[in-house]
Amino acid sequence: MTTFEEKYRKKQGLPDAALATPAAHPSPAMDMLRAAASDEYKAYNPMPHQELELWIRPNAANEWTDVYLPYSYRNHMISDGHGFVISMHFSTPIIVVTLHGRDLKELVHLLSKRQIEWVMEYDPRIWPELPPDKPCITGIEIRHAPRAAKKEEEDALPSEKKAPEGRATH
User: Fold this and answer.
1) Which of 36, 39, 110, 111 is deepest in the core (most CB within 10 A)?
2) φ and ψ at 79, to 5 degrees?
3) Burial letters for 103-133: b for 16+ Cβ neighbours within 10 Å, e otherwise?
4) Where are the domains of the chain?
């Protein structure tokens, strides 16, 4: 039986790179960077286990457009049945996410099992044209819940009410 030290002690003759333990699951950001670096587009990243959140990347050219939605807030999901449109409804400030594309039948089933780590929109400015049999998300539409209407004066809390005009209070 090996001890903890024997198991994790640096072995002689191995380069340092061989000792680095790879992460069980590479980060989605690293996957995207590798895909962009290799001039290869990937519409989504399946995971063998259930995920807690879905990472949505509507614009690969802008790193600030990322949206993370908890799967637990998804109320239902609708698909056209042909792999062209997937609509997911959430009970968060983001209420509807609609994915448009082609060959997304497998994505529908993996989303229903919460086995998709991220989805990303195809950008023709970054990647070359895809073969017609490869999954492709051509558009991601994200709709937010309408903002609440402003409170009327009588519905406001005392600290929110405006002071009457014309009278100075000290």
Assistant:
1) 111
2) -130, 155
3) bbeebbebbeebbbbbbbbbbeeebeebeee
4) 41-145
